[in-house]
């Protein structure tokens, strides 16, 4: 009788099979030492998490990593499609590889990630960048070793950008974690929301949640490895578990993770306001390991624009959520994403966004000018406002947020925060940089031995939004 394997076991078996074949090929091809791989990930933390799995697989194949592109035997660019600017940069960086490939034809050039999941991009790669050896999309991660094997054994162009996947949850893949004390943990993939500007549902497919069992097992491994912070990832974590057989939804998942023993904090992103429930906020408030930080992208303060964006909430319901969050967690830190210049947005509507951000007082904002993405509804909407005008609105938004952040920063002087010490400060010798639960950076003098631990820091000075402090 045929044995049925769990998705993780099936993936692991596939890895093992091809990884062994690749190790043999590589030991013949590179008899003088391990071949080197250069991996660069663009875009969001979801992509970073994929990148960590790809690096895990490369490690098992026998590659070591280098930061120097010119000395790499394998170059992998893990791409992002969210805005045109990101795509332009990537085309530029791929083009820049041509001389390298001319001088060392043996180098393998591979492209993967969201941008490759679009047919017009693949056509362009085939036509304009024929030196690229391997192109694969977001559904092909478990097949990575099989694809590399095909290239190593002589195929010049390998493309795998289909949506079919026997195990679309990437279970059972090895992970190379770049940080010892901060870990990314994907809980779900894909998005069902089809906001009219967004390409994600097209390049990442429909929502699918990992089982709570798989997530808890990965969290335990991460904690045993000494991590002090776990960030749960998903395009829309609040719809985690919808329709799942084990009945675990996102608040329940948070409670299960919170109950794991160990000295660690839990963060998560991204939340969609339409699915952010009072139960979730109550759960955040009552779970001592969950950081009081909520990234809740509002995108616009105008109800008409929100409707056109298909966001399924209003300015009023958003503000009500914020009020409730602050009532159960007075110290909560709120961050958000804003799009300026959505097709048809008027200056008056933009002013409603400005008034909303002033009303909420976000800790920080990620701000974007609308970028039309092929295949999305908004790409075909009338867009009469000139780019220069949108840039002016954008600057106005940034100035407003800087004022808000400066005011918030001033209020923190004299207060003590617990931070996770993340590394050396960039601008000051023998200073450290730490991050509060609210995702605010504080620089302070201290010994490098503290990196990766938690420390209490009193804020002594606030310059704009940069805080400096002293160890307690
Ligand atoms: N144009 C501009 N910004 C966009 N975002 C997503 N799609 C677009 C687009 N087409 C922004 C949204 C989202 C963040 C991740 O990127 O604000 O929340
Ligand atoms: Fe894009 Fe909207 Fe899905 Fe976020 S929720 S990934 S903005 S479609």
What does this structure look like?
There is one protein chain. By secondary structure, this protein is an alpha/beta fold. Among the domains are: 7-166, Rossmann fold (3-Layer(aba) Sandwich); 179-291, Transcription Regulator spoIIAA (2-Layer Sandwich); 416-471, Beta Barrel (OB fold (Dihydrolipoamide Acetyltransferase, E2P)). The protein is built from 14 helices and 19 strands. It has helices at residues 7-29, 45-61, 84-95, 98-103, 119-128, 144-152, 200-204, 212-224, 250-258, 278-286, 303-308, 315-328, 347-360, 387-412, and strands at residues 36-41, 64-65, 74-79, 108-113, 134-136, 158-160, 182-186, 188-189, 208-209, 229-233, 265-269, 293-295, 333-340, 364-369, 416-424, 431-436, 441-445, 454-463, 466-471. A six-stranded parallel β-sheet has the order 2-1-3-4-5-6, with helices on both faces. Strands 15-16-17-19-18 form a five-stranded mixed barrel. The relative contact order is 0.08. The model has no long low-confidence stretch (mean pLDDT 94). The structure holds 5'-deoxyadenosine (5AD) and iron/sulfur cluster (SF4). Iron/sulfur cluster binds at residues 191, 193-195, 198, 200-201, 235-236, 272. The site of 5'-deoxyadenosine has 12 residues, from strand 13.
